[in-house]
Amino acid sequence: MAPTFATDDRWRIGDTVLRSRFLLGTAGYPSPEVLREAILSSGTEVLTLGLKRTLGTTGQDNGHVQMIRDTAHQQGAHLLPNTAGCRSAREAITLAHMARELLGTHWIKLEVVGDEQTLQPDPVELVAAARQLVADGFEVLPYCTDDLVSAHRLVDAGCRILMPWAAPIGSGLGLLNPWALRTLRARLPQVTLIVDAGLGAPSHAATAMELGMDAVLLNSAVSQAREPVRMAAAFRDAVQGGRAGYLAGLMSTSDVAVATTPVSGQPFVLL
After folding, report:
1. Residues tagged active-site
2. Is 119 helix (H, G, I), strand (E, B) or coil?
3. What residue spans define the domains of the chain?
4. CATH of domain 11-248
5. Residue 118's Cα: distance from chain center in Å?
6. Among residues 144, 147, 198, 146, which one has the least CA distance to residue 168?
7. pLDDT in tens, 173-218
8. 19-47 residues labelled b (16+ CB within 10 A) or e (exposed)
């Protein structure tokens, strides 16, 4: 069943207009059929695909890539290949060009790992790769930390979209530093921000959207759930709810109690 959207609240990746703000990864599902059903349940319009891990050392598709392409076509979704597993700018640039040739898209989620334990991005190699790929005509979506200075460097390199982490990949810890994400939103108002990595529960996605993020991307929280199809729908609804809350305007917080119904000094009418 096609997803419903509470408002006509559209956004863009490059020149492509999108309505769903939930981007979904395609790795680690228990079966191709579960993956297919989760994609349809999510309502996503963007699917990520890690070519290095999917094609392996042979460079040959075992049917997984074609299945994702077919499901994306059925869903009306777009493919966002990523450079997951790359350790240098040169390696990421080479894989990005392979992805463009194989999948026919100039979109690339740019990942360059700098630490093996946290899988934290290497800021130096990431900026170098981003600058070259932008020059090569790619729409570059770099996976980065929530560091504001690194974000500025990526924007200066030509990136119009950034993908800051909430927490390390696959950790499920949620938003470890909401202040940093709020700062990115405030200081980069014209940049599209997609929270990527570390989200483990639908409430995490809702919180990210309430902070003013433009979208969220996740994989493990759905693929590793006991019921991935149901979890995909839960995240879909959480993203929509968080976005609606942000647009409606969240109430301000207070360290003291504030009476909801004043008992004096305010006129009221009994009917």
Report:
1. 109
2. coil
3. 11-248
4. 3.20.20.70
5. 18
6. 198
7. 999 999 999 999 999 999 999 999 999 999 999 999 999 999 999 9
8. ebbbbbbbbebeeeebbbbbbbbbbbbbb
